[in-house]
# Entry
Amino acid sequence: MPSAALPARFVLAAVSLLGGCASGPTALYEGPPRDRSQIAVIRRLARRSDLQVFRIDDRDTRGLEWHVEPGYHRVWVKNMQYGTAMNVQFTAWTYCAVDLEAAAGGDYQILSDSDQRSGGAGDTAVTLGTRVVDADGTTVGEWRECLDHAPRF
# Structure
């Protein structure tokens, strides 16, 4: 009679994959973890599906939080806008670079400025954009370059 138990290697692989999905912040600097006062934290809200951080400086990224050294950083964001215009569902997107001068101990959040507004005669205006705010909500980085296709690095 076959056993219902899963092979140990399958269970370990599944746990590794699940752990990767729920992993914590990603350190984008060399060496051991550093004290919070020596790094800057960049985050995006988990509930925003219209925004994806896919690259910081020269590193591809995933997740919701990244720890970086103080200094200049270029954050690449994919902005998406879902909507309906004249009874047709659509998705619009753009890939934007946001420049940020991060301070030691700084806490930064990536925000979406994407919007959809309906006008007369079925016209729909879609705005796609992103910015970075500090812990006080002050804008400290705005998009500098946007593309209608994924950039090649």
In short: The two ends are 54 Å apart (CA to CA). Residues 1-22 have pLDDT under 50 and may be disordered. The chain has one domain: 28-147.
